[in-house]
Amino acid sequence: MSSTTLAQGVYLNVPRADWNLFQELVRKFGWEAESREEMLDKFLRTRPDAMDLTETDIMNEVKAVRYKK
Hints:
The chain is mainly alpha-helical. Helices cover 51% and strands 0% of the residues.
């Protein structure tokens, strides 16, 4: 896909039996496709292992969002 092409993200439910056929179509068109599990794994790998937040920090954030302080 060229950098000048605008991409539209979509979510499709493809039967497991047709996944290989769909992957072939994706490859032929030069698109990108990944399963929900692959997207979740990628997201989890990019998250920090440890957060430097205390319970008080978390509660303050929750209250700020909930009560818009």
